[in-house]
Automatic annotation (TrEMBL):
Part of the binding-protein-dependent transport system for D-methionine. Probably responsible for the translocation of the substrate across the membrane. It is found in: Cell inner membrane; Cell membrane. This is Probable D-methionine transport system permease protein MetI. Pfam families: BPD_transp_1.
Length: 221
C-alpha cells in the first residue's frame, strides 16, 4: 500500500517536517517573547493589582480579544501587506512565521494572565512587606510562582501552532501542510497524506510530553 513512499518522497516529507518544526518553534519563541510581557501587563494593570490602570487594561484587553477572535486563515491573508513590509514576500516558510506569531501572541498573553491570576494575593502582600519593588514582585515572586503554568501555556501554544502551521502550508507556507495537500490530496496519493498526518500527531505528542515533564519538574522544585 505504501510503495509510493519512495526515498525521494521520504526526503520531501523529511524536509517538510523540518520546515514545520522551524515555523512552530520560531513563531513560538517570538510569541513567548512578546506574549509573556503582554500577559504580565494585562495582569498588573487589573483592578487591585500593583500597577492598576483601568484604561490601559481595557485597551490591551480589547486588542487581545480582537486578535484571538480573528480566524487564522483570515489573518493569514489580512496581514499580507505587513508580511511583505517586513520580509518582502508572503510566500515561504519564513514568511509564514509572521502570521503564526501574530496569531499566537494574544493567545499566550491570555494564558499567562490566567496563570498569574491563580497566584494567591497574599504572595504580593508578603513581597510588599519585605520591601520588594514592583519589578522585584514581578520577577522574583509572581513569575517564578507561575512558571509551571506558564510552561503549560507555552506547550498549549506550540501544539496550536502545529495546527496553524499546517493551515499556513496550504497557502504557500511550506511544511507538512503543503506536502499533505499538494502531493497527498491534490494528486490523489493518500499514503502521503496519511504519512503527514501521522508525523503531525507524533509531533504534537512529543511537544505535549516534554511540556508535561517540564511542568512536573518545576512544580517539585
Amino acid at each position: 500500500m505504501f510503495d509510493v513512499l519512495t526515498p525521494q518522497v521520504w526526503t520531501l516529507i523529511g524536509n517538510a517536517t523540518l520546515e514545520t518544526l522551524y515555523m512552530v518553534f520560531a513563531s513560538g519563541f517570538f510569541a513567548a517573547l512578546f506574549g509573556i510581557p503582554l500577559g504580565v501587563v494585562l495582569f498588573i494593570t487589573k483592578r487591585g493589582q500593583i500597577k492598576e490602570n483601568k484604561s490601559l487594561n481595557a485597551i490591551l484587553s480589547a486588542i487581545v480579544n480582537i486578535g484571538r477572535s480573528v480566524p487564522f486563515v483570515i489573518l493569514l491573508v489580512a496581514i499580507i501587506p505587513f508580511t511583505m513590509l517586513i520580509l518582502g514576500t508572503f510566500i515561504g516558510t519564513t514568511a509564514a512565521i509572521v502570521p503564526l506569531t501574530i496569531s499566537a501572541i494574544p493567545f499566550v498573553a491570555r494564558l499567562v494572565e490566567g496563570a498569574l491570576m491563580e497566584i494567591p494575593s497574599g504572595l504580593t502582600e508578603a513581597a510588599r512587606a519585605m520591601g520588594a519593588s514592583n519589578f522585584q514582585i514581578i520577577t522574583k515572586f509572581l513569575l517564578p510562582e507561575a512558571l509551571p503554568s506558564i510552561i503549560n501555556a507555552i506547550t498549549i501554544t506550540l501544539v496550536a501552532l502545529v495546527n496553524y502551521s499546517a493551515m499556513a502550508g496550504t497557502v504557500g507556507g511550506g511544511g507538512l501542510g503543503y506536502v499533505g495537500i499538494q502531493y497527498g490530496y491534490q494528486t490523489y496519493v493518500p499514503e502521503i497524506l496519511i504519512a503527514t498526518i501521522v508525523i503531525l500527531v507524533i509531533m504534537v505528542q512529543v511537544i505535549q510530553t516534554i511540556g508535561d515533564q517540564l511542568v512536573r519538574y518545576f512544580n517539585h522544585k
